[in-house]
Amino acid sequence: MIRSGGQPFFLPGGPFGCMLIHGFMCSPKEIRWLGTHLNEAGFSVLAIRLFGHATIPKDLYRARFQDWIADVEDGFTFLHHQCSKLVAIGRSMGGALALIAGAKLKIDGVVTIATPFNLPTSFRDRGLKVLIPLMQLIGMGQRSMMRSPFTHDLDAILPIDRLSYASFPPRTLLEVNALFAEMQRILPYVSVPTLLIDGETDQEGYPGSTSQILDHLRAKRAKLMRVKPSFSRDIRNQEQERISAAIIQFVTSLSGS
After folding, report:
1. What are the start-end ranges of the H helices in the chain?
2. Which of 83, 121, 181, 239 is the most buried (most CB within 10 A)?
3. How many domains is the chain partitioned into structurally?
């Protein structure tokens, strides 16, 4: 059962559609503020829910990275029937999915928010490929839980009441790693205009992340925007409005209006 606030949502608007993709362990609720701003600017907005999210953490045990890519493809199909132009916008892991969509689907642009090039080294250790199956073999696979590998200073802009998990099954880490490997493989095929939004500096756990994504993109129109976050409510609202305004300007430039 989907938890209250975790449902996908569609806000009808103009002929240009924006597909919002939430981050790992999170839900559409974390990007509702962005969807509202985009819709008020005249865009149609669809926020999808990724498989295994906004229910219970153990549901992630059954998730495969291909499921998340399929969720994006389903969202694209729905929005494509409503709109003549589309842009994929993703936060954190959702940004990786947006970039994959930029290479595989007929969309007009991509926006990423706080999306790393890689997970921190400790979460990419090849020993995990041995350890995690061993945990499953001895019956610990579904009982054990891990903390999120994603921490970012731009988390400060997210709503305080966002719906997210506190932990996840270890085997899901293999799927997250596989997803980022697919993103890295496909980056040279992303030729659509791209806006990358990140903190003031690349995150300590993700050295050179944004720069590496930028370097690997084929897109001629690729821009990096830096944001200084704060956990102050007033500044959080200001930064949300600033990010929304930058995305609206970017999407408007693609719509030709």
Report:
1. 32-40, 65-80, 93-104, 128-137, 172-186, 209-216, 233-255
2. 83
3. 1
Q: At residue 58, what is the residue type?
A: K
Q: What is the pairing mode between strands 109-113 and 85-91? A: parallel
User: Residue 199 has what pLDDT?
Assistant: 79
Q: Distance of CA 176 to CAs 61, 71, 119, 124, 148, Å?
A: 12, 15, 9, 10, 11
3 assigned to some structural domain: no
The type of residue at 226 is: R
CA angle 13, 19, 25 (to 5 degrees): 135
In the sheet with 222-227, reading across from the earlier edge strand, the strands are 9-11, 44-48, 16-21, 85-91, 109-113, 194-199, 222-227
Q: What φ, ψ does residue 162 adopt, rounded to 5°? A: -60, 150
What pTM did the predictor assign? 0.87
Quickly list H helices, 197-232: 209-216
Task: Note the pLDDT of residue 249.
Answer: 96
Phi and psi (nearest 5°) for 24? Answer: -65, 135
Residues of the chain with pLDDT under 50: 137-141, 204-205, 207, 257
| Residue 99 belongs to domain spanning | 9-255
Identify the CATH number of the domain in which residue 138 sits.
3.40.50.1820
* Cα dihedral sign, 48-1-59-66: negative
Contact (CB, 8 A) for 113 and 197: yes
